[in-house]
Amino acid sequence: MFRYCLPRTRGRLRVAMAVLLLGVAAAGPAQQALMPPRADPLITRDPSGWLQTSTPGGRIDKRNPFFRSLGSNGRSCNSCHRQENGWTVSAESVQQRFEATRGTDPIFRPVDGANSPLADVSTYAARAAAYSMLLERGVIRVGLPMPANAEFTLTKVDDPYHYASAKELSLFRRPLPATNLIWDTAVMWDGRETFAPFKPPMDAGIDMEDIRASLASQALHAILGHEQAASAPGSDVIASIVDFESHQFTAQYFDDGAGRLNEDNGMGGAAILAQQKFWVGINDALGNAPTTEPFDPRVIRLFDDWRDPDPSFRFDSRVWARAAIARGQQLFNSMRIEITGVAGLNDATGRAVIHGTCGTCHDSPNIGNHSVGAPLNIGIADASRRTPDLPLYTLTNLRTGEVVQTTDPGLALRTGKWADIGKFKGPNLRGLAGRAPYFHNGSAATLRDVVDFYDQRFHIGLSEQQKRDLVAFLSAL
After folding, report:
1. Is the pLDDT confidence value at 181 over 60?
2. Which whole number is the average pLDDT over 464-475?
3. pLDDT in tens, 24-75
């Protein structure tokens, strides 16, 4: 067909065809690498790609009592802790379950799924209104009383659902993931199921007795409370649930843009995560480490080899997606943050300004939680961030008369201490993409919202590109 072309045109066509063929040749492996993983019961789809769970037996044991209804309302642990959502629930998945069952799935129970346990759930429309917080934020209502001998009193309640009182405050909180638990240094957002203070062991190992006791306490109270069991199950049932929970690991395995996260020296995925070393206090930035090793700000080192894209692979879209993830990792590790006004951090250290990074609080290597039990108040529950769907509590200091308003007193409802108002634990960062929304009350709908919060809260001044890179990185964890 080319013999009728003019000589100059033929030359241009040869060049164009050569470029096209080079592009096709280069794109072939990229397209192949971007194909979703083969069917695997340990790999599930999420909004960013594919999430992987690793277990000792290479499968999810659905015979475990974790998946069995042990109470009176049809719920199991699995009702609020789903594999495809990083072993919690997402608001989107809850909405899908509501539509599929017209609001009768076991997760929709008035005891704590509804905005008030007295809410009308007799019709479809009534259920949609009653379970609005669970549907929109993916939160469960936790009812806790004012603690005895507290340093403060509850002087006013503004509850849009007309239920909360000093006898039982309504606190709307996200179910925490039932995975990656051997690295937890506090169990529950307010640490109330932490059986014993997790201490840095002298041998720099993991004090599994503390963790197992805490998980056992949490499982028991969940069965009696969330599942409304009439009596406690046997100790063998609790032990089996704890064994299941404490031996599974979850992380992002495949990214829709970057492909497999364990290729080309990438260290994504749950199989690699399961080998991560940890001890209580590891890499703590504020002097709580049990060893003499200095704090390493390079907390996450999963994608070090993706920082400099090979120009010879310029037709491979994975290269640029991986470079964005690597840039986001570098920002996480090195971006300077002037940390101010964080109760549990600035006041505890006596430093008005801490020149830190993301890793100052998310210090556990390649895990991202706080390696010591250090609940902090970063302002999520402040009255200034209250939206009309959240209750607002006015607390008055009995000694000074000082007044604070908050949507959730957090740790203070366990300790009774004025200084603990608004403090919560920092969650594990692995497997983030599948478990939106974020923060204890689901106030950040997306990871971009999380990045925007920190940018505004600490006046970082992130560029649009930096925000996109941080989101790419967090989605790959």
Report:
1. yes
2. 98
3. 334 444 455 566 677 799 999 999 999 999 999 999 999 999 999 999 999 9
> What global pTM score does this model have?
0.89
CA distances from 29 to 266, 333, 423 (A): 17, 31, 48
Query: Quick one: three-class SS letters along 377-399?
Result: ECCCCEHHHCCCCCCEEEEEECC
